[in-house]
Amino acid sequence: MATDKHPTPMLDQLESGPWPSFITGIKRLRDEHPDARINQVTNSLLGQLEHSYETRKGYWKGGTVSVYGYGGGIIPRFSEVGKAFPESKEFHTLRVQPPAGNHYSTGMLRQLADSWEKYGSGLVTFHGQTGNIMFIGTDTENTQHFFDAINDYGWDLGGAGPCVRTAMSCVGAARCEMSCTNELKAHRLLVNNFTDDVHRPALPYKFKFKVSGCGNDCQNAIERADFAVIGTWRDDMKVDQDEVKNYLGTKGRQYIIDNVITRCPTQALSLKDDGTLEVNNRDCVRCMHCLNVMPKALHPGDDKGVTICIGGKRTLKIGDLMGTVIVPFKKLETEEDYESMVELAEEIIDFWAENGLEHERCGEMIERIGLANFLDGLGIEPDPNMLSHPRESSYVRMDDWDEAAEAWFERRAEAAAG
Amino acid sequence: MPEMREPIESGCPDPWQYMHPVMRKNFGMWKYHEHPRVGVLRHVAYSGDEVWTVKVGTQRILDVFTLRKLCDIGDRYADGFVHFTLRSNLEYVVDDAAKVEPLIKAVEDAGFIVGGTQNSVTMISHTQGWLHCDIPGTDASGVVKSMMDELIDEFKTATMPNRVHITTSCCQINCGGQGDIAINVQHTKPPKINHDLVANVCERPSVVARCPVAAIRPAMVNGKPSLEVDERKCICCGACFPPCPPMQINDAEHSKLAIWVGGNHSNARGKPTFQKLVAAGIPNNPPRWPEATAIVKRILNAYKEGARDWERVNEWIERIGWPRFFEEVELPFTKYHIDTWRGARASFNASNYIRF
């Protein structure tokens, strides 16, 4: 390579130690890649990164870059120290939506790698915190070329900015016995219904879908998604008493008492004198703990579905919010079931687009207008499952109490009539 | 202008084509799983079929050489299919127990790390940092590489009471998210404003609206429209910096690291929890950040020593109490640990529950 290498004494220190080093990887692109463009871009990138390490500051600024026909999906980066490091002065990331559940064939990974080294820096991450494949580092012109190349064989950009973002789902039914729903189908039907809102940011702020197949919530959906879909079941959990006895035999009675029975958050379990496990299914909240400890003995029931929580988000602006139960239980079996879930998402996004302030997440809007008003706006009836407990403050007007109470009994009667 | 190509708005791809055939065949019909050794899971379907998963830690920022090396291993020793976890671990899936040991050997010979399952400290989830972010106070990849070098045995042995999720974030927006332990930049001084640039660069009303504590107001400075910050109100969160880069929040000296504990996304045994502040003022000290790693290790050691089986960090502290936590990890308790945000009152101890 003709270019002088930028010295990197601080970054070099990240090459020692047993964990694989990203610096070693970037250096390999600089030193060994056959394409001189990649050698120069990564040399320049290392120079800027070393400069950041020395001065303890970042030197990227954003801008406006997208591909033809879209308004988002790219994280534009222009260097503030581009004069010193010109080959990486434009270093945009393309956010590309992964297949639901993050499954890949090696053949497809190779095809993506081939396209990326043709147009980009050769650096990629599976996946960023929003769930996208991050193709890190290319200039404005090649952003379009790379997108054109991969878009031709089935890959599309994810969201960036105030829009519906790339969705996430767990491995779920593909490999997990805890799975209570078809996570992949829920994921794709939800996010692919909103491709226009993914590609053309026009909402108050970001909106995220995440799907976890059970209460273990491996996708962090309740905390990180505006629309969280969590698998659950409403009939009895399945108990294989022979396997319970096997666990008793191998782990011992005290282990089962200390690690299963007494750890149930609603005291729904009892270990009988004859070594059988008794479950009070009406008290069980489907937290998943006992299934996690005894995966051979305990399984979700057959009447599976999902709980939908709305409004989870991180700190900015009013503080962290967990999602709130809006749909306690919903079957997801027929195409109509899925369609009605997508319709609910449409209604929520429409209501929020109409009523949310600029840069206000859905959960923050609910906090501002009140959960009761949000339900009213969407025509969703209140349900005690939505709360940890009812109101504590007596400072409230209840002008329509009688009508509301009557409506409750009517709904109960309708539900009972089936 | 040359003719532009219209995008195909295909959205999220169908994973079915990239899924291991045994997983396709037994979709939704899995019966149970076992953990035969650290880094390996065995899933058994009702049909009797089984798949073995080998979990692999990598550097996360992958160069195409490394990606191809991982593909080579996948073709030669696995069945040509991979899955990525939420925390960027790569999982090879094979249909035969006999393939597991040769696969592990190939992975380890290539310099990757097998582990991260069950009660391990798994891969630290992290953000972009100085490598690519426009508002980072630190470098995530470097912090994570430095910490994983020190925590690698915990990744490979799974001897913690329960799984430990560590996260890092390069600013207080906290893209790394909640973790059992979270290492996040905490700015400690209000932004320094370049008043010459504000009027041209920033949409002032939206910057004013962005501030969580209404500390920013429009002002004329040196005859130019700009913004000013009430520095007594300012919480140094940096939320004004993304929409208005002349409000510089990053500072080589005053951007510190803070450590939070007890974030837990799972519903198991209790509802999901947010993380709590335990340490601040930690030097943001590249290239190895030894001070932050030392505190993380103290917390991990105390947790490993004191927690019962299945207790996550938040549950362990909930049982032993915060006074003992601060004692055991040798961290100071200060007035800054007392929450001042909305809902703070719910965190006060309104009882006679005192441990002695």
What would you say this structure looks like, in words?
The complex is a heterodimer of chains A (418) and B (356). Chain A has 418 residues and is an alpha+beta fold. Chain A has three domains: 1-160, Alpha-Beta Plaits; 168-231 and 304-417, Sulfite Reductase Hemoprotein, domain 1, CATH 3.30.413.10; 238-299, Alpha-Beta Plaits (2-Layer Sandwich). In chain A, 38% of the residues lie in helices and 15% in strands. Chain A has 15 helices and 16 strands. Chain A has helices at residues 9-12, 22-32, 36-55, 106-119, 140-152, 183-192, 195-199, 221-224, 241-251, 253-259, 289-293, 335-355, 362-369, 371-378, 401-417; strands spanning 60-61, 74-75, 78-79, 92-96, 103-105, 123-126, 133-138, 168-169, 209-212, 227-233, 238-239, 269-271, 277-279, 298-299, 304-310, 324-330. In chain A, the strands form five sheets. Chain A has a five-stranded mixed beta sheet. Chain A has a four-stranded antiparallel beta sheet with strand order 2-4-7-6. In chain A, a hairpin with a 6-residue loop joins strand 6 (123-126) and strand 7 (133-138). In chain A, helix 2 runs antiparallel to helix 3 (36-55), helix 4 (106-119) runs antiparallel to helix 5 and helix 9 (241-251) crosses helix 10. The longest helix of chain A has 21 residues, at 335-355. Chain A is globular. The N and C termini of chain A lie far apart (75 Å). The model of chain A has no long low-confidence stretch (mean pLDDT 97). Chain B has 356 residues and is of the alpha+beta class. Chain B has three domains: 15-114, Alpha-Beta Plaits; 129-188 and 252-333, Sulfite Reductase Hemoprotein, domain 1; 192-247, Alpha-Beta Plaits (2-Layer Sandwich). Chain B has helices at residues 21-25, 64-76, 100-109, 140-157, 195-201, 204-210, 290-306, 313-320, 322-328; strands at 30-37, 40-45, 50-57, 61-63, 81-84, 90-94, 113-114, 166-169, 181-187, 192-193, 216-221, 224-229, 247-248, 255-261, 276-282. In chain B, the strands form four sheets. In chain B, strands 1, 2, 3, 5, 6 and 7 form a six-stranded antiparallel beta sheet that branches. In chain B, a hairpin with a 2-residue loop joins strand 11 (216-221) and strand 12 (224-229). The termini of chain B are far apart. The relative contact order of chain B is 0.09. Strand 6 (123-126) of chain A pairs antiparallel with strand 4 of chain B.
